[in-house]
Amino acid sequence: MLSVKIERDVVGKYPSYLNDESGLVSGNADKIFFPENENDVKDIMKKAQNGKIPVTISGGGTGISGGRVPLNGWILATDAMTKLDIGNMEWTDPEFNETFQISLIEFNNEAILLAPVAMRLKSIQNFARENGWFYPPDPTERSAFIGGNVSTNASGARSFKYGSTKKWVVGLRAVLPDGSSVSLCRWEYRDKLPEQFFQNTDVTITKDGRKFIIHKLGKEIVLPFPTYELPNVTKNVAGLVWTDDSEPLDIFIGSNGIFGAVTAVALKLIRPPQNILSILIFCKNNIQALEVIKLAQNQRRTQNFPIPMSVEYLDDRAVEIMHGKDHTIPNAKAAIILEQDLTDDLLDNGIEFWVNSLDKLGIESSSVAQTHKEIEHHKFLRHLIPETINLIVRKNGQPKLGTDYSVPDQYFPELLELAKTKGDEFESQRSDQSRLGYAIWAHAGDSHLHLNFLPATLEEVKRAKQMMVEIMSYVVSVGGSIAAEHGLGKKKFNGKPAIVFQYGEKGLQEIRNLKQKVDPTLLLNRGNIIGV
Amino acid sequence: MMKIVVMLKAVPDTETRFQIREDEKDVVYDDSIEWIPSPYDEYALEAAIQTKEKLGGTVTLLTLGKGVESQVIRKALAMGADDAVLVNNEDLANSDPLGIAKVLAKELEALQPDLVFAGRLATDTADSFVGPAVGELLNMPVVAEISGLEAEEGKIIVTRDATARKEKFEITLPAIVTTDKGLNEPRYPKLPDIMKAKRKKVDEKDGSGYLEFAGTANRKVTQIKVEFPPAKKGGVIFTGDLDEAVEKLVDALHNKEKVI
Ligand SMILES: Cc1cc2nc3c(=O)[nH]c(=O)nc-3n(C[C@H](O)[C@H](O)[C@H](O)COP(=O)(O)OP(=O)(O)OC[C@H]3O[C@@H](n4cnc5c(N)ncnc54)[C@H](O)[C@@H]3O)c2cc1C
């Protein structure tokens, strides 16, 4: 018997677990389990494996590609996984009044946070800040669980400078579909993590050239790296992104839970920047905005001071949403949010660089936030954009169709142009001309663009999908990624798993083979990435 | 040409989680605290800048500080104030509200302003005292907690929210008003103005001449103990669809708390 909290009436009592923020598909499930720790997860996995019952892992439910949507069977909801057995301190987040059991291991210039998977990103950030540390990844949706962030390899605006979640995960524990547990860490962190983090495991995973090998009871499961060519971009979570410097824990990062459930994470924290300026730059047109983006990308490429933390693009529609909430924001044709971190001694130099650069580009209007509170206000305004769009989506009663494409930097202006053209075309054909038809925002520093269609009829859904496929072909043709940050989840195009558009049928087959080696009857997180 | 003064105070970020000092007489003010302009003072500053933009003139900041104010003053200058007077003296800044009001009144006397703005309270001490007290000391008219303002040469018309009604007053200048939320939306500085602010004049004084009548030695109100309110019992947030959340709430009230 399982000692875990179980509920049978999922449809009646927990309907939200049948969906996520995508509104893509609505799933179905017979039971929902609320494990509290890794042992509970192991029990559930074993029982499901014996009964050949599909299991879908749920995090915070903020995903937008249907990843946690169950296609029958059981839901493994991680909500109650707030306490790490090996954690040595209790901490209560004053913002949510939620208590976590965690560990903080501090060194001179970095620290490691051992966190349970149900800790929300915002709580991670709050904890770090309260203790004089900084967790750089900043995906916009901060109510996501860290477990979800790891499984989708989430990234945010500041990934421009700091990379995606992956770069900050230095260790994790996971339970494989057969119920065996594993503990993994990055090579250089072997001696920095406490011994208990590695205890009570059933399997080990090693790497040999371009192969991962799972060792269990003398048996070996060999997982060769896929042979497809990875897109030439700075942000990509399409399928399995294994590279020469990947380590065994990377199997579980960004793979949408198809290889196992993550049960604990070890995150790297660094010292916070001494100063952060959040600069909202209001542009007269897209050309000005593109110039700012190019300049920032150039700073990063040449590693010249100053390199901003983030460079976000907002179109006129997105700016209008912010203006609606805060009238100090002018109704500009386009805006850039640039975040610049600076040490005390270089503060003035950094500001001067941007003052002079923007002056040369003829940009006159800006709004600078400097205190934590003001920066939070900028973030709030930025978050308002997808939130407002999602509200409209719900009112329209049709799914949001948004691109999540990134391209090599030199193609970004073309991608923006194409998105705008398609958006205008879509809008000119919609049934009700007063309704907002689309909005564009972009993590522009990483040449990553969200074009969001807001269809209100089935006909419009069809048209938007067609346009997305057209843009997708362009993106792939210039070496871009069709899943820069949201993951592919259960996304399909023309009836095929989206992955086919990135890596072809062969790529799909390769990932499917790997999945089958770990999960022979394809029970865990069905439908994710490979469509079955 | 209006001569406008804004009384500006730096306070700890309103989200600061304080620790209590060992002697329990105060909280700890250390490096971990981020000092911000008191939020009500930002409405004061915005009102001052708007008035200047409409009628012409200058905006001077007046701050009694204890060594942590430089960033806050620089930011206010970047927003559009022209210059600042900073009386930097920890002993004076730690005095009681009347002592503080006396120092500010003396400085204002020298500045000869037409119009003075202050926040309706500072979010750290929340006395709601200093603005009106300065008015009293200078024999100047005061209207507190305004939420609307129309400025003209020689007079201003202000609105104040009273219980279930709005009141309007016409005030002959010079005068002092304290500002409430809703008066305006304080602007954020433009990037070049942050650099320009560095070149604006901050007249820093040590204020030792005031110690005799306004320092902590003269203080009649002394804080003797700080304690936190008893910890709230951990709340629970029920998430999900409305129906689902209600279901969970009812379930918890019935089965866990056994109150219904
Ligand atoms: C308004 C809004 C803005 C967003 N902005 C961003 C953004 O800037 N960047 C970004 O990357 N994403 C963004 N997202 C998407 C979403 O927040 C991320 O994908 C997030 O990482 C999902 O986390 P979650 O805990 O909500 O996971 P869920 O939605 O619950 O699950 C996501 C996937 O992870 C799997 N999973 C969850 N927990 C585990 C676990 N413990 N072990 C194994 N698998 C697990 C699930 O099975 C599923 O496949 C946004 C979403 C919204 C609604």
Class by SSE composition of chain B: alpha/beta
Cα distance, first to last residue of chain B?
A: 67 Å
Q: Which fold name corresponds to the CATH topology of the largest domain in chain B?
A: Rossmann fold
Beta strands of chain A, count: 23
Radius of gyration of chain B: 22 Å
Oligomerization category of the chains in this entry = heterodimer
Determine the number of helices of chain B (DSSP H or I, runs of at least 4 residues): 8
What does the average pLDDT of chain A come to?
95
CATH architecture of the largest domain in chain A: 3-Layer(aba) Sandwich
Explain what this protein looks like in three dimensions.
The complex is a heterodimer of chains A (532) and B (260). Chain A has 532 residues and is α+β, with helices and mostly antiparallel strands. Chain A has helices at 10-13, 38-51, 121-130, 146-151, 159-162, 286-302, 316-325, 347-360, 372-396, 412-428, 458-477, 499-518; strands spanning 5-7, 31-34, 55-58, 74-77, 89-93, 98-106, 110-116, 169-175, 181-185, 204-207, 211-216, 219-224, 261-270, 275-283, 310-315, 334-342, 365-369, 401-402, 405-406, 438-443, 448-453, 492-493, 496-497. Chain A has 3 domains: 5-77, Uridine Diphospho-n-acetylenolpyruvylglucosamine Reductase, domain 2, CATH 3.30.43; 89-270, Uridine Diphospho-n-acetylenolpyruvylglucosamine Reductase, domain 3 (2-Layer Sandwich); 275-492, 3-Layer(aba) Sandwich (Vanillyl-alcohol Oxidase, Chain A, domain 3), CATH 3.40.462. Chain A has 12 helices and 23 strands. Chain A starts with a strand and ends in a 14-residue tail after the last helix. The model of chain A has no long low-confidence stretch (mean pLDDT 95). Chain B is of the alpha/beta class. Chain B folds into 2 domains: 2-218, HUPs (Rossmann fold); 230-260, no CATH class. Helices cover 32% and strands 26% of the residues of chain B. Chain B has helices spanning 39-55, 70-79, 90-93, 97-111, 130-138, 191-198, 211-214, 242-256, and strands spanning 2-7, 10-12, 35-37, 57-65, 83-88, 115-119, 142-152, 155-162, 165-172, 175-179, 202-205. In chain B, the strands form 2 sheets. A 9-stranded mixed sheet of chain B has the order 9-8-7-10-6-1-4-5-11, sandwiched between helices. The longest helix of chain B has 17 residues, at 39-55. The chains are: A alpha+beta (532), B alpha/beta (260). Chain A binds chain B through residues 12-17, 92, 94, 96-99, 130, 132, 279-281, 326-328, 348, 351-352, 354-355, 358-359, 365-374, and chain B through 13-15, 17, 32, 34, 36, 71, 75, 78, 185-192, 194-195, 198, 232, 234-237, 239-241, 243-244, 247-248. The structure holds flavin-adenine dinucleotide (FAD). The site of flavin-adenine dinucleotide has 38 residues of chain A, from strand 3, helix 4, strand 13 and helix 9. Residues 20-21, 57-64, 67-68, 78, 117, 139-141, 144-145, 147-149, 151-152, 154-156, 256-257, 261-262, 386-387, 485-486, 489, 525, 528 of chain A line the site of flavin-adenine dinucleotide.
